[in-house]
Amino acid sequence: MTSSEIFSIITFIYGAAALLYMIAWVFKKPMPGKLATAALTIAAIGNLAGILRRWVESNQMGIGRAPLTNLYESLIFFALTIAILYLFVEFKYKLRILGAIASLVSFLSMAYAALKLNNAIQPLIPALKSNWLIAHVMTCFIGYAAFTIAFGISIMFLVKSSKEAKASGEQPSVITSRIPSFDILDDLTHQMVTFGFLFLSIGIITGAVWANQAWGRYWGWDPKETWSLVTWLIYASLLHARLMRGWKGKKIALLSFIGFLAMLFTYFGVNLLPGLHSYQ
Amino acid sequence: MTKSTNPDSLLRKIWKFFTSVKLSMSVLLSLAATSVIGTVIPQNGIPEVYTRQYGENLFNLFNALDFFDMYHSWWFRALLCLLTINITICSIERLSSTWKIIFPKRPSFDANRFQKVKNREEWTSGSSPEALHDIFHPYISKRFSVSLSQKTESGYFIFGEKGRWTSLGVYAVHLSVILMVAGGLIGSIFGFDGTVNIPEGESADTIFLGNHSSEKKLDFQIRCDDFDVSFYDSGMPKEYRSRLSIIKNGRTVTRQDILVNAPLRFEGVNIFQSSYGEMPSDKFTVTFTERESGSLYDVEAGFDKPIDMPNGAGKFIVKDFRTSFEYSGFNLGKTFICTMIPTGKEPEPVLVSVDHPRFDMMRQGDFVITISNVLYKYYTGLQVTRDPGVPVVYAGFLFMIIGCYITFFMFHQTICIQLSNKGAGAQVVIAGISGKHRPGMNTVIRRISHHLKQLSAA
Ligand code: HEM
Fold this sequence. Notes:
heterodimer; A: mainly alpha; Four Helix Bundle (Hemerythrin (Met), subunit A); 9 helices; B: alpha+beta; TATA-Binding Protein; Tick-borne Encephalitis virus Glycoprotein, domain 1; 4 domains; 5-stranded antiparallel sheet; elongated; binds protoporphyrin IX containing FE
């Protein structure tokens, strides 16, 4: 099986996992939930296998490079990191509620890569031939995945607080009654943001070291660099707001939402601006 | 005396202003917001292009605000400066008050603090408190940097504590920010960043800084012995390789191949492969074709050497060369830029395209001019930099990663094991307190409880 074939099967399994998580959420049955976890685990393993397969393929073509060097490959790696990180959270917190969002993000990421982008394995231009590239891309994407999950939690937070504000006194609705308590959500957001912050920091730093090695400057205010700094600064202020000014709940959820938008722009939007980093 | 005229309280006020986390949040978010400007407006461009794009008025406004080179503008630097002062003062203030808490003269434990703690495990054991104490105390003292056991009426308290120092992690993070800003400053004051193009076989000791606005002479020469570029089948470049020699005081001191990710470093100066191109040699043939008669006149020529045009028509000078030249939306390809001085008239510019020899016919002159027999040589485009701030910035990187790891994933933990008589055996209670109420404490208590159970059963 070629890696592209593996990826298209995996895309469907991610979709199925998302569906199962939603069913588990709405009908509150344990069975679909367990199936969902199994499906997502299989998808993640398959995703990893596909990436390794692609690596082997590039070696067979005599190009031999880690499959982390263009938008297509980064989306596939992103899907994997989201899935793994989410499964870890599910395991640790015994919490399935985020599964729907996490699997959906992985599904969309894979589907977009498969439908819209060129999957040919291309050789590398000289500047990308560096081990720092692998460290840089991996750490950045682990950071992105953590922020995405934090964003998912923030959405739940906002949904829950707006629904409960409306329905105060009435029976809580089917959807929101499954959302865990505000305390747990808040704690989880913080865990994800700190994890993401550490990895985004390492990502920016490895990028800087690499740039210093390839172009003789560790920082050049290139749009991608600048946007990653913007993202980093937003999350830094979130950490201070929470720790020092005691911000909680809605305000933190809002900052995490803004940080996520900045992160999305760092990832996709910057390709519209000129600079060294634009993939393709 | 009113407060504001009292110098002491004014200083206090300024100090207080800089210790505020509200200020730091405003500065962090302002830096984030303003940084975006420079990604939307291209930086360090040509004024004419900006005027065309934004119009006269907007251009003047943006120019006044330094938006075209905003990361070096006074106000952006002022924000960075504010951030640094803020962090420094904030850290001094907090560190001085937390130091005593972090490093107390002698540790003390208070069993009462653990009475209502949520993170706890309880079980009963068949062994006596004394027996358990003799097993548990070594375990705790091995695992915790500070431990203590206390005899009580009905048994024992065993305390353990570690990780007090982890609250220093935050200061490492803040120090890292200061180091990075300082390193950047050192680089911009004492460093340089320039480019130079060197044809194969030739050498250079002068580089161009910024947008070719100024030059800098190095105290050594760089010679390009050889340049190679290889391509993939698709036509994409695969590898650029320059063989460089460094010549100092007439002696070759180093010789090395450089690639895109593998620069040459010499006496604090870094030489990077950054581009390449083709350059004509200084010897070629200029052909004048008389329009009326069609007669051809060949003249050997070089750069900046005036040559005589046929029949005393004037002088002709080849000034410069471009690998590609845009003329009214049409790319002329390899083009020589020349000046013609017809006898008794004003000099006029002439473009001679090698790739489009008929182009000069459009000029409608007495002669059509072409250039041939050009030998091209590759030149290597080098980036030459010196940045004494790099070690400082890299130290900042290290502090940032280590500091974040300590702050986020390690924490101060104190535990208390209470052993009391219960029938023939003992009641065991294990409770723990963490700095900043970390959820991780839960796991710590569960794991310790699990180990102790195994130890006491064995
Ligand atoms: C880019 C700049 C900055 C970064 C990356 C940064 C990073 C951090 C981090 C990661 C934490 C720990 C948060 C946590 O435990 O969850 C922290 C805490 C803190 N920061 Fe900053 N910070 C920055 C600027 C500032 C500034 C300008 C101030 C000045 C007021 C400041 C004051 C504090 C204080 C007081 C704490 C709490 C320390 C404690 O727990 O005792 N930070 N910072």
